[in-house]
Amino acid sequence: MKLLSLACTMIVAGSPCLASAESLRCTGGMVSEGDSRLSVIYKCGQPHLADTYCAPVYYPGTLEVVPQPLASAIVPCQVVEAWLYERGPGNLMATVYLRSGVVQSISYGREPR
Fold first, then answer.
1. Domain boundaries, position 65
2. Which of the 8 DSSP states describes residue 109?
3. Reported pTM
């Protein structure tokens, strides 16, 4: 049993972390989840494109979206900002998603999502 426990510990310690947050390297430094809007602008400059939208509201404990007229009457809109950064030839575009002025996630792709 002790050998099995040691083997499991070695496998877990040697495997890469499955849940890793994305980060964005800019000329002014690294941007990652939890950074403020001001920090992103300071490190990366103004985005190439920016958009805002209301995030969908879900029923508690489910993945079902609350219909729009009902959702806006019960829960105020949660504004999400999407900032697109062109990173030059040969690099994927980076989209930084902010909620309440804080970076929530960063995604990469050939086209904006």
1. 22-109
2. E
3. 0.71
